[in-house]
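Exercise 7b. Backbone tokens:
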């Protein structure tokens, strides 16, 4: 990915995360769904970089929220991306079955 495109993607994702600040939903008693929790995963979702341990930990904590993120028009296409699939596989996360 060239630097200009990478920069544009990062700026867009940062803006997307900023828009999500107010979109916090409690899915289960122990999990607060907040797309901002996945911020440590952005580099791995936008480049060949591998996800960090922090990214994997947070992704595993947000598993109950993934169906909601998939259904949200603002986040769905990013959650379904090839790069995100790479992160899910590398972190050994079992994605939920979404209805």
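Sequence design result:
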């Amino acid at each position: 990915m060239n630097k200009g495109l990478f920069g544009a993607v990062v700026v867009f994702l940062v803006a997307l995360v900023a828009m999500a600040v107010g979109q916090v939903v409690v899915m289960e008693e122990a999990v607060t769904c907040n797309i901002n929790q996945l911020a440590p995963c952005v580099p791995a979702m936008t480049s060949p970089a591998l996800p960090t341990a922090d990214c994997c930990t947070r992704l595993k904590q947000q598993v109950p929220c993934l169906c909601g993120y998939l259904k949200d028009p603002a986040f769905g296409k990013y959650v379904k991306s090839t790069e995100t699939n790479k992160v899910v596989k590398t972190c050994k996360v079992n994605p939920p079955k979404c209805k």
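Instructor comment: The chain has a mean pLDDT of 78. DSSP finds six helices and two strands in the chain.
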